[in-house]
Amino acid sequence: MDYATLARESLDRVAASKPLIHQITNVVVTNDSANLTLAFGALPVMAYAPQEAAEMAGISQALVLNIGTLSVEEIEAMILAGTAAGAKGIPIVLDPVGAGATLFRTDSALRLLRELPITVLRGNRGEIGALVGSGEVRGVEATGSEDPLEVAKAAREAFGVTVAVTGPTDVIAGPERTYLVRNGTPLLGMITGSGCMATATIGIFATAGEDPAVQTALGLATYGLAAERAAMGDPGPGTFRTRLLDEVAALGATGTEGVTIAEA
Amino acid sequence: MDYATLARESLDRVAASKPLIHQITNVVVTNDSANLTLAFGALPVMAYAPQEAAEMAGISQALVLNIGTLSVEEIEAMILAGTAAGAKGIPIVLDPVGAGATLFRTDSALRLLRELPITVLRGNRGEIGALVGSGEVRGVEATGSEDPLEVAKAAREAFGVTVAVTGPTDVIAGPERTYLVRNGTPLLGMITGSGCMATATIGIFATAGEDPAVQTALGLATYGLAAERAAMGDPGPGTFRTRLLDEVAALGATGTEGVTIAEA
Amino acid sequence: MDYATLARESLDRVAASKPLIHQITNVVVTNDSANLTLAFGALPVMAYAPQEAAEMAGISQALVLNIGTLSVEEIEAMILAGTAAGAKGIPIVLDPVGAGATLFRTDSALRLLRELPITVLRGNRGEIGALVGSGEVRGVEATGSEDPLEVAKAAREAFGVTVAVTGPTDVIAGPERTYLVRNGTPLLGMITGSGCMATATIGIFATAGEDPAVQTALGLATYGLAAERAAMGDPGPGTFRTRLLDEVAALGATGTEGVTIAEA
What we know:
3 copies of one chain form a homotrimer. The first copy, chain A, is an alpha/beta fold. Chain A has 11 helices and 11 strands. Chain A has one domain (3-263): 3-Layer(aba) Sandwich (UDP-N-acetylmuramoyl-L-alanine:D-glutamate ligase). In chain A, helix 2 (30-39) packs parallel to helix 10, helix 6 runs parallel beside helix 7 (148-159) and helix 8 (194-206) packs across helix 9.
């Protein structure tokens, strides 16, 4: 199967349909996530108030939930938006930022997994590990030595959703197949929100194809490929961050040759 | 009338008086808006708490209200700040981000228009249209085919405030005259918050002259001119966003020749 | 004493220990502060909810409190986090953004100083002055003519903490010695959050040595040195902001020769 062609087709579908991506995300990354969404040709909308969360999800094509700077009110908004998204049948992507670091984060992520029809769960191996009882984090960084493949499969079993454990190699565990994505650059670890932007990318790609695991792999590979191009010449993190948006926006012209996806 | 000279005079007045611009805005654009305000030579202050909103507005030279990530508490702060601003007689600019997308946004924008002495209302044609019963939006993007000139005039009639409908051509409907501004670049649509920054610009320029419609036209034209310069060579959105700040800060040196304002 | 060597040693300690810096900061600067923390080789975690504030502080190596967009709930989180940080004995840095501009900010900053074992207080001369009954601010900018050395010493006396008053020359008043730091560039005043990032830097450096006043001086000088390098060629504020992150991340390679610290 030619993943570069599939990635290209997904990009084209996004550009043609301009899906509205409703994001309830953290205050650190909200600007970056919105800009990334625009760079992919999709439309971001950030809406957090319980008073409008369900209505906004109801007009959207995907919902992205990110607990990076969670509050009690935001959980309420996520439940309302997620319920509306489930009723409409649009994909829901959950990023359990910092799960394992505090009980509030772990419990909130587990509650969202329990109460909402999550489509894809994405985190680093510490965060996802914490949700299945292994995993070690410091703040929002994975520090343990879990095998990401084991962590992804365990979470896949436990929650019945497609699971993406991102890192030097991304592991995507779907109901039938497991994919490995080898795109990316260590510079992604030098900027805040690179994981959150990966999650937003999954939400965007989930609107462009039927199989969540395949779309997640395509999204992560394409995002990683743009990051590789942005990392050319080994720039500092400020310049890399600027170029990352440039390279994502340029994907229509520069193409998707170079995405590196394999079945595990 | 020589608009380039008028724009230059407004810039000089801002640089000389360093007006304090109190902004209650959304979490997506707060950093960009603050940096833009500094680049124009004004002083930004972001203050959201009901406990201080009135006091902060009372020491400011303009108030900018933006409902992009509205909460119930933030509406309360906006009412307090706007009432204080009205009592002091400083200009108030309202950006009804996403009005029409959810009832919460439409109703909140209408309430602010009803309860506060708004000076200028700025939005895209979908948002402003939604406030007067036409208009079509997806999330925060205009998608319908309304005539911006009709929309601006209808809102001007309905609310009795100066109305700016921004787009490829900006329309500014004042009590006596209507202006068209043709500055700008499609790249502005590739970055989040470009509309919100236009609104902040209006707040800044409103401190530098008596006629809100003229000042709005001057502000939008000057901002659009800086954006045209930042778009030279067709950079990606990350680079464009960086250069936009550079070009706004450089306006004192590069001048305002090129602002394109006409009466409708 | 060779301050360049001491600065280098602190940087090396940070890179080796990767301290977790818990930040409860304002929405304007949260992305910049997180990226700056990563550029220094430390790990940022932004956690604001009262439900997790104490737990997050308890696993961190420093706590940074910044009242730039304060809410009543955030004060509660700060008290919880600060109490946990005090119990653990990790450094707490307080940035009283806009103290003096509103009673809510002044009173909240004074309350945090009273109830928490603050290690270092950093602000501009207007903000720190306001806390000791002098000082003049407009929004978040100092506008009066107080002598920063007098202001720093008065606050040192009043609160019994190390005080950093930043400006063209930074003054750091410790219990035994007072330091002057002359690094920096006027371009820092052209970007929002440059003071907040200075505060985050102090939190990072406070994890790398015993004497808070010395570590504060080293941190401010190193940050200022990176800013000087980013200002080479007098770029616009957008480009400067990008390069500032690049230069901080490059400090391991470019070194700390050029830090300019003297005893007062």
